[in-house]
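Ticket #4471: structure output looks truncated?

Reporter: J.K.
Steps to reproduce: submitted the chain below (284 residues) through the standard prediction queue, then opened the result file.
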Amino acid sequence: MSQSSTTRPVDPPQEVFNWRAFQERDIDAARALSSRLGWPHRHEDWATSLAIGEGVAVENAEGRLVGTGFCFNQGHMATLGLVIIDDDWQGRGLGREMMTRLMGLVGERTLQLVATEAGAPLYIKLGFRPCSTIHQYQGHVTATVNVPAIPGMRALRDSDRELITAMAPLNPVHVETVRQADDGVVIEEDGHLVGVALRRLYGRGDHIGPVMAQTPERARALMAFLLSRAHGRFVRLDLVAPEDDRILLEAGLACVNRVERMRRGPEINDGPLTRFGLINQALG
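Returned output as attached by the reporter:
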């Protein structure tokens, strides 16, 4: 009498991924990943992120870049951005692993990020909570912009850059943004800057941000000032729930997206000036 034998199914081989620090040689492949998502990042934008942030890369077994993520030290807090997992490699836990590794770079500091609709459920599971809505405006400036008269408002001078840098001297993101600014506007009162907005090359054209002021009215005046100097150019702004966007719409821009900014940890005070416009969605 022969004994029957059962054959145990063989488990599929485990996929092998290589996790490592993001390097300069990854920039072109990373730009291809972001382009597939419709993101406008140039090679220079990725290079800036590498210069001021700490990046994580993941490769498949063949050495192809399939995911990225960056942590940006902002002194008292940090922001996460450029978190991408290639569509072909979704559903393998790489997004959670990427976030775990990025969060491990931060320690106990407060974390902020801007969540895509697809990424929001994971971020909530990891302890992030919505804290504000970011409105993305963009388009070509096609109309003459009426600039409100604000006492002390004037174009950025080279001597102002040191004063703006001193607002957050230990924040490499802030320092680099001031350095890269091609144009800017300030409001000065009694020798102190009480309003700042900067414009620099980014993505498809120009990005206005940050926009920092004491009141929404002053923030709108700062934006109008820079828009009036950008006629015919493509401009983008990422604004924190604007109360009144007529200046932007009349200039030729449109609100093309709304996304949630999320925070993990206690709220951080911006200081004497409120941030009405972000540097960009990754940097806050």
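Triage note (M.O.): checked the attachment and the full token line is present. The first helix runs from residue 27 to 36.
Status: closed, working as intended.
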